[in-house]
Amino acid sequence: MLFDLPILSTLIWTPIIGGLIVLAAGEKRARLISLIVSVLTFILSIPLYTKFDTSTAAMQFPELHSWIPSFNINYQLGVDGISMPLIILTAFTTILVVLSAWEVIKKKPDQYMAAFLIMEGVMIGVFSALDAILFYVFWEAMLIPMFLIIGVWGGPNRVYATIKFFLYTFLGSVLMLVALIYLSIRADGSFSILGFHTLPLSLTEQIFIFAAFLVAFAVKVPMWPVHTWLPDAHVEAPTGGSVILAAIMLKIGGYGFLRFSLPITPDASSELDWLIILMSLVAVVYIGFVALAQEDMKKLIAYSSIAHMGFATLGFFLVFSIIDNTGSWRDAALGMEGGLVQMISHGFISAAMFLGVGVLYDRMHTRNISDYGGVANTMPVFAAFMVFFSMANAGLPGTSGFVGEFMVILDSFKANFWIAFLAATTLILGAAYTLWMVKRVLYGEVANDNVAKLKDMNAREFVIMALLASAVLFFGLYPGPLTEVMHSTVEHLLQHVSVSKI
Q1: Nearest-CA neighbor of 422 among 311, 337, 335?
Q2: By the 8 A CB rule, do 140 and 125 touch?
Q3: Nearest to 171 by CA among 138, 143, 152
């Protein structure tokens, strides 16, 4: 409780109500109200960290109210060491999205800001929901504001991108709903997610449920081969839409694996871990080569996101191979924590990369790499930030981009040398496609008159990039604040899923 208010409900409903106020206030006050609401939400999220008990894996800040009694559906909330950092990341990123749109969005800025605020509240709801139907409502509700953001403020092919985005994510979600209803029947009508974790399910039941969850979460991550909607969505989305897609929405798929797939279907996860590992490695290696071939900066960063999220899912599903080889679930903790750190780190780095592309696009209205060259000559401060974030994207030691990848690679050796070898290729491929883009865009002679006329970042843009750079550097040098809060939760999850393996 915060000031006698339920903190999680406050975090969910403050931005949603704030978004409705922005709509009522109109265009003139939209920016200021949106900034106040987003900053307030972030401030309210800080006690989640400061009052968090790192010694327990139990759900904290719990709330439970009857919602639809006739169907035994409750308004049940709580967070642990997996969900809490993602909520704070969501609140932090929304501030940057509001700031990034301050001068750029001229068309219906009140509706634009309101859509992001409402989506912020809904995404926090996803991370804190402990009732399956409540989770599903928040999960589906995310689609609506993002659909509108891409469809109204997107590029020339926005209609195609929005329909593709909606169909992919909605069809995957339908299978998840079927699985949740079946689990409820097996749980005597209860929709408690934590109750699902202890259901005695046969292997056949688990495999079907795991498959349903896999489709929903793999699309959201997205994993190969259901990743094709993401580059299209990123290219057509406005800058803020790309930032939220990469920094937060992709993480919800990874979160789903940890909250549903692994604890509810541990035997099926063990039987099919090879499939997830294969899909993850394909994302790391193949998608890395695809990124090398891109001429659109947004597409390159979008494919980079798929490759980096492959590291997160790899870290999550190495568990069973490591237990087979070492006989101890404790040996798998490093990889799972590495996957979580990778998700948080990618949130900062991908947000920065897309915001950087947005800075250039606002000035030249093109994202094609061939239209640039020598930008560092006219925008030296911007170039310094982009080089830093590009290095972090490539996994430079000392940045947060290195920490998660290193933890996963290190733990991969306990599972299989060749898995570790293939995973480590991301350090080469990531450097190749990221630095190749930096070389062509930032360095060399000034390519044309448009580049020669570019003006460096203004104070607003500098503040946004400086905040992200500080986060990337801080967690790169001192990841302890992240790993400490997730450690007990990860150990509890590993104990749970390892029972059938020991």
Answers
A1: 311
A2: no
A3: 143
Of all residues in the chain, the percent with pLDDT exceeding 90 is 32
Out of 67-81, 112-126, 387-401, 486-500, pick the least confident.
486-500
Helix H or strand E segment including 76:
strand 73-79
Measure the CA–CA gap between 9 and 115, rounded to whole angstroms.
Answer: 19
Radius of gyration of the chain (CA): 22
In Å, how far from its chain's centre is CA 300?
A: 17
Residue with tokens 């049940």: 76
Report how far Cα 276 is from the mean position of its chain's Cα atoms: 18
How many Cβ atoms are within 10 Å of 497's Cβ, its own excluded?
25
Decide if pLDDT at 297 tops 60.
yes
SS3 for 266-305, per residue?
Answer: HHHHHHCHHHHHHHHHHHHHHHHHHHHCCCEHHHHHHHHH
Name which of 289, 283, 315, 497 is nearest 403 in CA terms.
Answer: 315
Q: Of 303, 261, 256, whose CA–CA distance to 284 is shortest?
A: 303
Residue 405 has a pLDDT of: 87
Token pair recorded at residue 457: 């970042």
For 107, phi then psi, to 5°, come to -90, 115
Pairing of strands 73-79, 60-68: antiparallel
The tally of CA atoms less than 13 A away on the side-chain side of residue 104 is 24
Q: How far is CA 341 from the centre of its chain?
A: 11
